[in-house]
Amino acid sequence: MDTNKTAVIIGGGVIGCGIALQLLQRGYHTLNIDRNAEVGFGSTVNSCAIVRFSYSTLDAVKLALEGHYYWKNWPAVLGVTDPRGYARYIQTGHLVLKTLPTDRAEMLELYRQTGVRFEEWTAEQLHERLPIYSTASFAPPKPIDDPAFQEPPKRQLAGAIFCPDAGYVNDPQLATHNLRCAIEERGGRFLLGEEVVEILKADGRVAGVRLASGTRIEADVLVNAAGPHSVIINKMAGVEHTMNVSTRALRREVHHLPSPDGFNFNERGICTSDPDLGIYWRPETGNKLSLGSGDPACDPKTWIEDPRVFDRDISESQWQTQVFRLGHRVPEVPIPNMAQGVVDLYDVSTDWIPIYDKSDLPGFYMAIGSSGHQFKNAAVAGALMAELIEYQENGGDHDARPLQFTGRFSGMTINTGEFSRRRNINKASSFSVRG
Fold first, then answer.
1. Distance CA 110, CA 434 (A)
2. Contact at 8 Å (CB) between 32 and 191?
3. Per-residue pLDDT tens for 150-201?
4. In the chain, how many H helices and how many E strands?
5. How far apart are CA 19 and CA 9, in angstroms?
6. Which of 33, 16, 22 is nearest to 386 (CA)?
């Protein structure tokens, strides 16, 4: 089917490319515009790319479960060969550590409803399977300058929840390049190293964009997939004042550490969420691990007003806080003298749940507010957004009757109204990268 319509996607990250591929398959002509010199060179490249199902709402769990099948079937999803090879899905499983026996009871009920496979481990089973992990409880998370940080623990963890089907994607930028190959094979185009400075309108709807170079590009449909820059694009479009849920950029650090002696994280490591200490980690190429923050309430947040300008140097305070928290859980982990890792931005929504939606400007759509945890859903979000756009552009009313999206692999129906810009703030959210 050829609609003879043009969709311009602002953003060449993994979500923007996922949308372009799906729109091409529905007959749209697509153009991705990105200020970077290559696809996936924005916040995508520094994503931890963890694939897990531990969310606080039913439709978020459904979306993540559907999304993981795309990664498991990645070459078939793409339908083309990339000379650079394919990004790989590494199925390590995912652990959520429990401070109390009742922790995550609501999440387990969502797992039962959706068919997510899981095991409940006691603290003893956790120690048997991962003897490098301490099973002591250090909750609640504390800043490193808190005198209680070094106090000996007084109790044990209640155990853990293990999902064997979870894991991570080994190369986020390569995954995005894979999508670029699939897009270009189908006639999609890219305009890289260019910046959008104006959203053009005509007759009450989107008409295109103007670039910093002065070039004007016409479009029937415009999609904001600009990641941490999404708030700037929404302001250009004049739609932010009609949204109940908004976005802003948050500076984040992910640190890299070597594996403990005698334990190869690449071979034996499991993606782990540790709310007891306020951190998470996963195996990293080269027998290392990547360590991030779980956004505990005690940690300060650095919000960025202009996502084009922020400090990309690792901070000593954040490095020490995260690595010494990990040292509590994995006492044998070597801590390098020099801080190592990456610094980038999250595109955080008010309740840390993404916005996949239309806007009050006809023809203008949003796939934003990924909040550091939507890489896993990039491919399925592309399908969801393409179907939503098709539904709305063909006379549907997504606000009045939200699209009910059926997963290609799982067959489950996802109420996309949960990701609406007009939703009530989700009080069940963790208000953190956990979603």
1. 15
2. yes
3. 999 999 999 999 999 999 999 999 999 999 999 999 999 999 999 999 999 9
4. 10, 25
5. 8
6. 22
Q: Which of 277, 274, 289, 285 is nearest to 336 (CA)?
A: 289
pLDDT above 70: residue 101 = yes
The strand pair at 189-192 and 29-34 is best described as parallel
H or E segment and range at residue 303: strand 302-304
Rounded CA-CA distance 282/198 in Å is 40
DSSP bridge partners of 9: 32, 223
CA distance 23 to 333: 46
- The DSSP secondary-structure symbol of 424 reads P
- Cross-strand partners of 405: 414
Please state the pTM of the whole predicted model.
0.97
Quick check: 400 and 258 in contact, CB under 8 A?
no
Q: List the beta bridge partners of residue 365.
A: 223, 358
Question: What is the three-class DSSP state of 34?
Answer: strand
Cis ω for the linkage preceding 140 (within 30 of 0): yes
Contact 349, 356 (CB under 8 A): no
Dist CA 343 CA 314 (whole Å): 7
235-247 mean pLDDT? 96
Sign of CA dihedral 95, 151, 302, 320: negative
Give every CB contact of residue 229 below 8 A, 6+ residues apart in sequence: 11, 35, 249, 307, 308, 347
Beta partners for 136?
156
Tell me the mean pLDDT in the region 394-412.
98
Q: What is the pLDDT of residue 428?
A: 80
Average predicted confidence (pLDDT) for the chain: 96
State pLDDT tens for residues 115-140.
999 999 999 999 999 999 999 999 99
Burial pattern 31-48, b for ≥16 Cβ within 10 A else e, equals bbbbbbebbbbbbbbbbb
Rounded to whole angstroms, how far apart are CA atoms 227 and 43?
Answer: 7
Which residues, other chains included, contact 408 with Cβ-Cβ below 8 Å and sequence gap of 6+? 66, 69, 380, 383
Tokens 């009045």, residue located = 400
Rama region for 248: left / alpha / beta (φ>0; ψ in -120 to 50; rest): beta
User: Per-residue pLDDT for 1 more than 90?
Assistant: no
Q: Helices in 215-343 by DSSP H: which ranges?
A: 230-237, 265-268, 316-329
Q: What pLDDT is stored for residue 315 in this prediction?
A: 96
